[in-house]
# Entry
Amino acid sequence: MKYSKATNYALHTMLFLVAHTPDKPMGVQQLAERQNVSPTYLSKILTKLVKAGLIESASGANGGYRLRRKGNEISFLDIIHAIEGTASLFDCALDHPSECLIQQEMVKAEGQMEDYLRNKMMSELAEKMLACQ
# Structure
């Protein structure tokens, strides 16, 4: 199973915002430099996070992006769904007369993974990251 690079950047951006600047806006340029990614590309990712209600944007001289929710209310799954959507990772292409047994098992496995990611909060990782610095 593989997630997109956008999800990777979104998770890292959110970790940085939770750990370092929960209330203070951070500019896209500074966030992009931390990950060595194009500000234009990261802006598209940030737009998805804004639409999902995870962060908010503030314009002006002291503008940028900041958390809209507390770090202990933001799960890995929230971020992944903001970028990847909520569609199933597996879709059976065969035409079956009844329910696909393979599809049923894949949906169960996805459910278990989603439960884990739903319970893994960004604040937990932020605390570990700050303890290592």
In short: The radius of gyration is 17 Å. The longest helix spans residues 101-119. Helices lie at 5-20, 28-35, 39-51, 76-84, 101-119, 122-132. The first strand starts at residue 55 and ends at 58.
